[in-house]
Amino acid sequence: MTENTSTASVPGASVPTASVPTETVPAASGSVTSTATTAALDSRNRLVLTLLLVSTFVVILNETLMGVALPHLMRDLSISASAAQWLTTAFMLTMAVVIPITGFLLQRFHTRPVFITAMSLFSVGTLIAAVAPGFEVLLVARVVQATGTAIMVPLLFTTVMTLVPEQSRGRTMGNISIVISVAPAIGPTISGFILNVLDWRWMFILVLPIALAALITGAVRVPNVTEPRVTPIDVLSVILSAFGFGGIVYGLSNLGTPGSGITTVSGWLPLAVGAVGLALFIYRQLRLQRRNEALLDLRTFRASNFSYAIGMISISMVALFGTIILLPIYTQNVLGLDVLATGLLLLPGGLLMGILAPFVGRLYDRFGPSPLVVPGAIIVSAVLWSLTFLGEHTAFWWVLVAHVALSLGLALLFTPLFTAGLAALKPELYSHGSAILGTIQQVAGAAGTALFVTVMTARSTALLGENASQAAATAAGIHSAFIYGAIISLFAIPVAFFIRKPAASGEPAFAH
Fold it and tell me: What global pTM score does this model have?
């Protein structure tokens, strides 16, 4: 396996006369910025990273706001449940199709235009959603939003890996963990507050000013931190990527829909198309990467740390999204809580992840990943096993404690995995690694949702056929779903022992 032992070279971009002069080591030594220059650029870098973090938090938060709002949308727009579900399915599909292309975009174009494009798309989509007169326009708006969201996540990871020195990446990745993990966790809570007093359109109206402010600030202040290179785009790879990742995400999302299980054409056909498309896409990339022309360079997986981290992130995302989808169903359909009470019940766990993330990042910088990911994997598995004991009469405080403990375990996992995985790559592969990471999150999230919902639905339907009550059948279905999730979580524990902190490869490069 290949570990990152090279140093990044300073791109030969022109520097405006007003910029801070950059003193570099001669090219033969690896071309890294001096300590003095790094210090001088700290203020600028903090602004860039803060802006990217806020922007990414907003776009990811938007991804999970819609779930709680679906009943309101069904009533206000006079649409069926299956039609309303497309507002989330279309978002996930767009993300799965666009994210693999971002590896190419981040290599081909400067940072500033990529950021402006992403936030412009998201802002336009948000505006269209806020004024949408009906379902069709709202669906288009969600697709436009998702296109911007798909670009922002890899852009954030790539920028961090380019700007932040290796000895400080854990702390910065801790902030990214807030974005990646807390935004989905608190999305239902925020939706509950908004929908309790306002119309569903306010979910977009309140987000729009923040998105526009980020767009304007970024257009003025975000520097170009990468040096583009002329890279031809392989159209066939784009098409295969769309069929591969799109088919898999759609198929997985469809499994949990009533009447679309694995025994029907609508259940297995998209998965089959996705599997074939993905196999052909991988074959195509393996051929193209020999000429450094791959849309998504799979040489990232030659770094063992990256491969192990991706495996653990996949399992963690299955646990996170599966739990996020099941616990609200349990609290509302079994325990009888309303939407707002459910949101408040899940809020402490989301806040805990946000509070812990920076501290976990500092611990990573000091001690490395092993003291964090090993107990984190054990805690997540233990919580999922404890959730298999949920029943029709379980006290609500048990759900609260379990969710807080799960949030603790995930907080110990995400920051070290993001940091150790991407740091194992050579600098020229950062953009591809970021795109792969974003794609895996979408696919694993869809897989977690599909697995948990499909198992729950199958078990609940069987019990309802035996004249069980709705609450009892739902509780039993959730019990079965968490058994599957708990078994999967066991695979992460041995992998955790193989995650290592990559050897230092020098300071990152800067461009203007």
Answer: 0.75
